[in-house]
Amino acid sequence: MAGCVFCGIVAGEVPAFRVVDAPDGVAFLDTRPVFKGHLLVVPRPHLVTLADLPPDSVAGYFGLVRRLAIAVEAGLGAGGTFVAINTKVSQSVPHLHTHVVPRTKGDGLRGFFWPRTRYADDAEATSYADRIRTALVA
Fold it and tell me: pTM of this prediction?
């Protein structure tokens, strides 16, 4: 879809720190992460909300989200993950996307208040993407 930044990332026209590019979706680092290693997982076609995801795509898409949640924990040594989807309200980009956020006990995240951080530079972002990608299991 013209003008959609996530469609541009899927097409390779917009740069991103990709972790995985698979038939069921593309995962990349959020540029304003809640915590470093925060991923966004998007389906390849332009779909706006979860309701738009075809029923026959649910298992593949959420299978990818599950694999990435496991990889975030293993690759970053996180204590767990927070997995979330905003539909319409608070959906900053109108393209279905799932947040996979690394969590550690005492990290300060409370409720739905999401403070944002930044990577020091591209090298640091690349190192986070690489660590998660390395931990990704089939």
Answer: 0.87
pLDDT in tens, 47-103: 999 999 999 999 999 999 999 999 999 999 999 999 999 888 888 899 999 999 999
CB 83 within 8 A of CB 100: yes
* Tokens at 93, concatenated: 């980009």
Q: Is 10 helix (H, G, I), strand (E, B) or coil?
A: helix
How far apart, in whole angstroms, are the C-alpha atoms of residue 30 and residue 47?
19
Write the DSSP string, 43-75.
-SS---SGGGS-GGGHHHHHHHHHHHHHHHHHH
- Four-CA torsion 64, 95, 97, 88, nearest 10 degrees: -140
Judge contact between 22 and 66, C-beta under 8 A.
no
Task: Name the architecture of domain 5-135.
Answer: 2-Layer Sandwich (3.30)
| pLDDT tens by residue, 103-138 | 999 888 876 666 778 899 999 999 999 999 999 875
